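Translate sequence into structure tokens.
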Amino acid sequence: MILSKMNGRVRCDMGGCTNPAEYAVGREGLPPGSRLFLCEECAKKIAALVVKAEKAKKEREK
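Result follows.
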């Protein structure tokens, strides 16, 4: 997986969000158009959800 900083004029891919994308997330070797484009706000929200899910998973495994 790759995460790159955007410098183009692309909108965030999250439904209902109209902010400009600041990050592109994708797999190496695939075309740039297949990447997920996210604004900073949506990227932070997704990161927080992943952290929360990982914590819940670790608690269940105890």
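Note: The beta strands are 2-5, 23-26, 36-38.
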